[in-house]
Design brief:
4 strands; 4-stranded antiparallel sheet; alpha+beta; Alpha-Beta Plaits
């Protein structure tokens, strides 16, 4: 077995990791992929395969991949506690789906686009956790199918939400209920902190778990943004802060949807 290490400058977030994983995993005699997002390096364990073939596949992704080194190795050692990872991922997946439904409901009741957008972000995270669960062990075809469905659904919902934001900016001025905004966002903040704590307890260095922690950390920042927007709506008596936050989050969800669709190619 050979170990070939690639330096990939364009691999700067978990989305690129998923794209590379779906490009290579289960193909070309590859036994295992190990990612290091901090150093932007990828270790590929493979058999009976020219390293230039792998480099050619990475070049097609336009991330600036270069081969760093290659060597013979005896075996691949896996240290992942798969059962524990699965248990934690199922818990955070359930929490995110629950708060997706709750934030969507109360976002519509309160008239807050910030809450509606945050609910879609929770849905997007649910898909990330689902992909992470499959990364623990599932067929490539199944991963691509889920990625395609989730990507199109996120994109559709985000476009509808962004259209509503534009409509309100133009003239349909609806001042959201800041009390519901702040209360529900505070509960979502607590939920995301719990999810992050659970993910940290697993203490896994596997990239799909690291990706889940990064997305959850981003959610905490979004929750705080919606709370601040609610306070500004209360203080200024205008829906503009809510619409601004909603626009930002919808754009984040759309960007994530495009990246997920890239996984399904």
């Amino acid at each position: 077995m050979r170990l070939t290490t690639f330096h990939i400058p364009g691999m700067d977030c978990p989305s690129e990791e998923h794209i590379i994983r779906l490009k290579l995993e289960g193909r070309f005699g590859i036994e295992l992929l190990r990612f290091n997002l901090k150093s932007r390096c990828l270790d590929v364990y493979h058999r009976d395969l020219n390293e230039k073939v792998i480099l050619g596949e990475l070049d097609a992704l336009n991330m600036g991949a270069v081969m760093f080194r290659t060597m013979e190795v005896n075996e691949v050692k896996e240290t992942t506690n798969q059962h524990r990872e699965r248990s934690v991922l199922w818990i955070v997946l359930a929490i995110n789906l629950l708060f997706f439904a709750g934030e969507m409901l109360f976002g519509l009741i309160s008239g807050s686009m910030g809450l509606v957008a945050d609910s879609l972000d929770m849905l997007a995270d649910s898909f990330v956790y689902a992909l992470a669960l499959m990364a623990v062990g599932a067929a490539l075809r199944t991963k691509k199918r889920v990625a395609k469905i989730s990507g199109y659904l996120q994109l559709l919902l985000a476009l509808i939400g962004f259209g509503e934001v534009i409509r309100r900016f133009i003239g349909a001025e609806i001042i959201p209920d800041f009390r519901i905004m702040m209360m529900v966002s505070a509960l979502a903040l607590v939920a995301n902190v719990i999810c992050l704590a659970l993910l940290h307890r697993v203490n896994s260095k596997d990239v799909h778990m690291q990706a889940s922690m990064i997305f959850t950390s981003n959610d905490i920042a979004i929750n705080l943004g919606v709370i601040v927007a609610g306070a500004l709506v209360w203080f200024l008596e205008t829906p503009i802060p809510d619409l601004i936050v909603g626009s930002i989050v919808f754009l984040i969800v759309m960007r994530g949807a495009w990246r997920i669709l890239a996984l399904a190619r």
